[in-house]
Amino acid sequence: MAEEHGALPPKDDFSGWYNEILWRAEIMDVRYPVKGLYVWYPFGFALRRNVYTLLRDLMDRDHQEALFPLLIPENEFAKEAEHIKGFEEEVYWVTHGGTSPLDVKLALRPTSECAIYPMYSLWVRSHADLPVRIYQIVNTFRYETKHTRPLIRLREITSFKEAHTVHATWEEAQAQVEEAVRLYVEFYDALSVPVIFSRRPDWDKFPGADYTMAADTIMPDGRTLQVGTAHHLGDHFSKTFEITYEDISGEQQFCFQTCYGISERSVAALISLHGDDRGLVLPPALAPVQVAIVPIMIGKRGAEVEAAARDLETALKSAGLRVRLDTRDMRPGAKYYYWEMRGVPLRIEIGPRDLDSSQVTAVTRLGEKTTIPLDSICDGVASRLTEFGSTLRARADDHVRSRIRICGSTGAVRSAVERGVAVVPWCGGRECADRIEEETGAAILGTGVQSPFIEPEEGRCIVCGREGGTTLVGRAY
Ligand code: A5A
Ligand code: ZN
Known about the structure:
The protein has 477 residues and is of the alpha+beta class. It folds into three domains: 14-274, Bira Bifunctional Protein, Domain 2 (BirA Bifunctional Protein, domain 2, 2-Layer Sandwich), CATH 3.30.930.10; 291-384, Anticodon-binding domain (Rossmann fold, 3-Layer(aba) Sandwich), CATH 3.40.50; 405-474, C-terminal domain of ProRS (Translation Initiation Factor IF3, 2-Layer Sandwich), CATH 3.30.110. It has helices spanning 14-24, 42-60, 74-77, 81-87, 113-123, 170-190, 236-241, 265-274, 302-318, 332-341, 352-356, 377-402, 410-416, 430-440, and strands spanning 28-29, 39-40, 64-65, 71-73, 93-97, 100-108, 132-141, 156-167, 196-199, 211-218, 224-234, 244-246, 252-254, 256-262, 280-281, 291-295, 323-325, 342-343, 346-350, 359-364, 369-373, 404-406, 421-426, 443-450, 459-460, 467-474. The strands form six sheets. Strands 3, 7, 8, 9, 10, 11, 14, 22, 23, 24, 25 and 26 form a twelve-stranded mixed β-sheet that branches. Strand 20 (359-364) and strand 21 form a beta hairpin. The mean pLDDT is 96.
């Protein structure tokens, strides 16, 4: 596995830090010999599993999970004009079976509209079949030409959660987009990753959508990362894939659809927002290891300490915690370093002196040291984990809040986007957007900004002076 030597670059050098932490904390191995494809280490995969279990639980409340094929025949893929235009440069094609050319080329799904909707056309018959709310968690392939980055910009997205819903009316689909936004806010809340939702400008919406809502978070270097989107698809796809239902009066009607997706960028945001100069810092709810027990087995009482540490492990495990007892033959300091790098929220040290006073020493991942009496160990550990979770949440909120600036001129925007995002009034006009983008080096991310940290404010467009709505401007990953 990953050998450890040298120091992690400081988080201020975010790009260096990010690349190093992925292998030092055993999240991803980037040495796979295809550009844009990476390997999940077991530890990274355990983190992914916790994040996606949470996401599944949220979806399972009122969605059903299904699984559609990876390959999409060219004729289905080419049906929706906007969609194909938007994705054609990003599609990988399967052209051969063995040495024989295929009659119909097959696309590796870049997203699954064209795999799912031909089936929806068969499944949806009457108003009684609606709404349909289905999701799947799959890998998708996009031939990204921008700089690829592990977990952030992949050519094989390994953990694509996509939901696809079908409704009787445009308004019901709109309500579903709002519900998706609420679900994603709740999901990112559970990760303690603050997100800002906004409506993408028309030129940046999903290919084939009426409109797109997107969640952005602010990375440690001030750049934004789009960590989820929800699209109102109108009836564009239902018309091309003939998804119709019979209404109450017996007439055939086209359906209205939505889709929304999240990828392993969620894990990238989780790692990036909470980590520090010593490695990962993970919220207790998601950490693969919540408590690491390090017995200090020195001198004659080594066996006694080890036995006490094993009892402790048993007690905490039966309280439902994810615990590792570290009895490796290594210096305690090396073990501390090891578990810190992996973001373990709480380390418990137990040595001869602790035994004498019937207590243990507990150190949080942020270095806060306390003692916990052995007779109330489970409660003591649980309350420290809860407090630690709240501390992380507050830190992440502070980070994002401090990176948002309300601006009244392009000059102010230019300096704001060097360390975060700017919120400005913008009229919605393309020329004004181009001016803002030219003069600030940042992009219009979206309008109608939704964040607990931003007051929606009408004002005058910072370029033309016409009425403008609350608009998010930033430099995106
Ligand atoms: N069918 C809809 C859901 C869809 O494909 N939407 S999307 O293109 O916006 O992708 C959903 C989310 O996946 C994006 O918001 C982004 O967070 C993530 N994503 C997109 N391309 C990615 C890539 N190349 N690598 C990692 N994540 C990506
Ligand atoms: Zn304007």
